[in-house]
Amino acid sequence: MNELLNKLAVAIARGKVNQKSPFPPDMKGEFGADELTKQALEESVAPAAILNDGLMIGMKTVGDKFESGKAFIPDMLIAAKAMNVAMVHLKPFFDSGEVELKGDFILGTVAGDLHDIGKNIVRMVLTGNGWNVIDLGTDVKPEQFIETLKEYPNAVIGMSALLTTTMMQMETTTTAIKEVSPDTKIYIGGAPISQEFSDKIGADGYFPDPNKFAKHLASVV
Amino acid sequence: MASRERVLSSLNHKQPDKIAIDFGATAVTGMHVNIVASLREYYGLEKRLVKVHEPYQMLGYIDDDLKEILGVDVEGIFPLNTIFGFPNENWKEWKLDSGLEVLVSEHFNTTKDDKGDTLIYPEGDTAVPPSGRMPKNGYFFDCIVRQEPIDEEKLNPEDNLEEYGLISDEELDYFSKKTKRASAKNRAVVLSIPGTALGDIALVPAPFIKHPKGIRDIEEWYMSTMIRPDYIHKVFEKQTEIALENLAKIKDAVKDNVDAVFICGTDFGTQNSTFCSEETYNELYKPYYKQINGWIHSNTEWKTFKHTCGAVKSLVPALIESGFDILNPVQVSAFNMDAKILKEEFGEQLTFWGGGVDTQDTLAFKTPKDVREEVLKHCRIFNKNGGYIFNTVHNIQGNTPIENVVALFDAVKSIN
User: Fold this and answer.
1) Residues 6 or more apart from A8 whose CB is under 8 A from it?
2) Contacts A208 to B, Cβ<8 Å
3) ipTM of this predicted complex?
4) pLDDT cut 70: percent of chain B above it
């Protein structure tokens, strides 16, 4: 694999955003995700290769660590920051269709719930896995999911809830979506959620961490 | 045993005559105002509007008549100002979206936005941007993050220290009077100490400050524990220095009227893991906790109370080394947080304050029979040889069926 892409994967996994950023201390002064992505494009590395062999590998590394309890929320957030700057350079190739994405994924925290860290980490992992994530933010009403689904009819939907007081919104939202689009896959996540709850409300699955979820999506799509 | 004796016995790891019970003594061991109102109605108590004493989570004040019925053994004393930076005084009527009428501080000033969400303001000042939002038909507020753009070159730890200062004579006098009054009720007294929470994510956005500066965004703060550790150390160092000065003054003000002190509500756990490694905890947090708890243990009889949600079993030895005596809320529903194993491994060193029943699932969504079984099981495990104060895993949520809450108290009473 391209040495440059190896470096990019490491920059993502370790949260090296750009050359100026002092973190991680042992990578001080080195190129970060920003410069490495730019350099790869300048050296005519295919954008799809940058995504598949750079970003995705980096995300997988930090995601695997998170899944096994060796990386933590701050590690995921800083990796996301590095990935976001890399994505800025790749976005034109996604928009033009030059890089084929895995599909559309509509994401949001359900109505009445304003929490978004978990959702944002899911967004980051899925984006890094080659999904076009349409993030509707927090406090998303069922009709907002349905409206967005009209625009992206083949999308998979992901819903998040942190609160015991808002998780029942997942049932309302799932029912409303399945009524207009029974074949749309809906996945749920969040602190109070379980597979049992997912089964009960008619969703298509619950995943306790984003990495496991990304692997599942890759296996079914 | 009188309530205070019962609690002290348990805190000293001696078998109390009954299981000691807390509801309402801290901001993480209470009940949503809906629940307090429903319990008053259920038990046929005098009709009166319930006071919202903690306006962020909308916790209801449990009056003495209800405390008697529930068998509550603990009194709680809170800082002079609430999390929105105003004192609870001159109560006025206010209505939740559900229609429930409650009493709130005269400074609890709110507006509605175009979505129907309720906005609340720091120090009750509606002339500045709001610092809290309750979604339409919601149960409580969440912080509105007011993060100014971060200029790495100009970041100054002093900006994150605006909320910490020497305690005022007014607040000392308030603590003195409140603790004396609480202690006279013969219940144990828990005092929530202001300014000792290290990086509590509910406090980082500073919903009590009109124009917060520094690092106030939640994700940015979490990342800062990794990417700006020197900054965080400087905040914690100065915060601890101020806290130690304040502790000495508070000790003089409250005399022997306090039995335990709430130190910190920083959550170190998620549902499945921790927020940081043991190495990070030991490097970034432990030195400061040790100073605070060390001072308390050298100078007072107070037991020190640490709240952290989540799957924190791997951090419990380090929390004990940090000098904490009490762990709350003992989230038995989180990964690896089995009640029996926790009691076996740490029961001699720690008092478990909570863990009676899971509020995310069992209490909120299952049957009274399920609630009873879980409460009985956990009480039998945790209360052996003391070291246990009964409470749920965190505050009882506003949508919990009242029959489940009653089942909970009936279960504890049946053991007692």
Assistant:
1) A33, A36, A37, A40, A50, A54, A55, A58, A86
2) 271-272
3) 0.93
4) 100
